[in-house]
Amino acid sequence: MVKKILLILLLPFLVKSQSVEQKKMQWFKDAKLGIFIHWGLYSVNGISESWAFYNGQISHNEYMKQIEGFTAKNYNPDYWAKLIKESGAKYSVITSKHHEGFALWDTKFGKLNSMNSAARKDVLTPFVNALKENDLKVGIYYSLPDWSYLDYTDHTRKIKRYKIEDEPKRWDKFLNYYQGQLAELRDNYNPNLWWFDGDWEHNEKEWEVDKIKSLLREDNENVLFNSRLCGNGDYKTPEIGMPVTRPETNYWELCVTMNDSWGYYPSDKNYKTPKQVIDLFVDCISKGGNLLLNIGPKADGTIPKEQVTILQELGKWTNKHKETIYTTVAGIPYDHFYGPTALSKDSSILYLYVRDIPKDERIILKGIENQIEKITIVGEKGNLQQQMLCKVSWNKYPGVIYIDIPKEKIDNYYTVIEVQLEGKVNLYRENTGAIECN
Ligand code: GLC
Predict the structure, then answer these.
(1) What is the mean pLDDT of residues 77-94?
(2) CATH topology of 26-320 equal to that of 328-421?
(3) Which atom of ligand 1 is nearest to the CA of 228?
C-alpha cells in the first residue's frame, strides 16, 4: 500500500524526468548512424592503436618514433566531413587522444601532441569545424588512461599501476593533467557527446567521474556521455559483437570496425562488404540502436579506398531509404516476420527489411490485426500483390499474408517493404483454438 501511494506521489516527477531525458537523447536516438575515426601515431607503421607497445609487439620508444611520420600532408577535413555526410551518418566521434597519450590538438598539457609531430599543427580543430559546417554532431573520444604519462603509470615498457593510496600526490598530478585536457577540449569544441574509453583501469571514485561530468556539463547541460565512465553514462556501447537479442536499454550504440582493426592497418584486408555493413546497420535499426562505424585514416590524412567505397555505398542505400531509418523505432518480434523490421514513430507504418528475395519471390507476414491500407517497396512505384491465407470468420486469427516482390524492383543491398496499417500496429499474440464463434 505504502509503495503504491509513494508511486502515485512520485509519478509526475518520474514522467517529467523521463521526458527531459527523452528530449536530451532525441537527436542521438534518431541519428542511427555515426562514423568513428581512429587516427593517431599507429597509422604511421600501420600497427594496432596503443596496444602494440602495451602488448610488447614494439617497444614504447619505437612506437613513439612514429611521431616523425605523422605528416597529415594530404589531410582534408572538409572532404572527411562531406564523405561522412554522404554515408548518411549524422554524427562522428574522433579519437582526440588514445591510450598512448598522443593528442590531436594543441594542448597546453604535455608535449605529446600533433604540434610536435611531423604535421606540426593542430589537426582536430579543423575537423570539428568541418563537422559543424556540414551540420553533423560532434563526438570526442578520449582515453582516460594515458600509458605514456609517467604520473599515470610506472613504466612505459610494461604498463604498471601504482597504488594511489601510497602516492596520492602523484595521482593528483595525473588528475590535474587529464582533467585539464578535458576542460580544453570542452572550451575548444563544445561537443555534443563525449566518448570515454579505458575506464576499466580504475574505479569511478579514482577517476572522479562525478567531477568530470559536471565539469563537462558546465556550458552544455545536454551533452551526452557514453557509458564507459564506470557505467555512468547515457547510453551503452557494445563493441564488435552485434547484440543477438534486443538490448533492454533504450539507448545503445554498436561500435564496429570495417576490417578487424580500429586504426589504419594495411595488412588487414578482412574488410566487410558494403552489404555486410548494411546487415549490421539494419540489425541495429530494428533493435532500436545506433551503429558507430569506424574508419582508420592513413598518417598523411587520406582515407583508404576500401573505406571510402564502403561509406559511399552505404550512402546510396541510406539516401534511398531515409524514411525507413531516421524516423523509425525498433520493429516487431521475429515471430511475425523472419527478418529485421522497424516502425514509424506513430507505429502506423511497418518496414520490412528484405536482404535476399526468396526463390518464389514472396515474403510472409503473420499475425497483424490491423487492416492493411497498402504495401509498397520504398523508392518504387505501385502497390504489391498480396494473398491472405488461413483467415476464417469463426476465429480471431488474423491470417498469414504472402507479399509478392517483383525481381526487377529489388535493391542491390536491402529492399524495404512499407506496410501501411490502419492505426497503430496491433500484434496478435494468442494461440488459436477451434471454433471461437459461429
Ligand atoms: C577498446 C580498445 C580501443 C578502441 C576502443 C573502441 O576499448 O581499447 O583500442 O579504441 O575499444 O571502442
Answers:
(1) 98
(2) no
(3) 7
Which pLDDT band, with edges at 50, 70 and 90, does 160 fall under?
confident
Q: Which CATH number fits domain 26-320: 1.10.10.10, 3.30.70.330, 3.40.50.150, 3.20.20.80?
A: 3.20.20.80
Encode pLDDT of 32-67 as tens digits: 999 999 999 999 999 999 999 999 999 999 999 999
Q: Which atom number of ligand 1 is nearest to the Cα of residue 98?
A: 10
- How far, in Å, is the centroid of ligand 1 from the Cα of 277? 19
The alpha carbon of 2 and the centre of ligand 1 are apart by a number of angstroms equal to: 47
**pTM passes above 0.70:** yes
- Contact, 365 vs 281, CB < 8 A? no
Alpha-carbon gap, residue 88 to 85, rounded angstroms: 5
| Cβ atoms of 345 and 336 closer than 8 Å | no
* CATH number for domain 328-421, candidates 2.60.40.1180, 3.30.1340.30, 1.20.1740.10, 3.30.420.10: 2.60.40.1180
* Best residue among 262, 264, 292, 295 to mutate for probing ligand 1, ranked by most atoms within 8 Å of CB: 262
Mutate to test the pocket of ligand 1, among 54, 142, 197 (most ligand atoms within 8 A of CB): 197
| Three-point CA angle 43, 48, 52, nearest 5° | 115
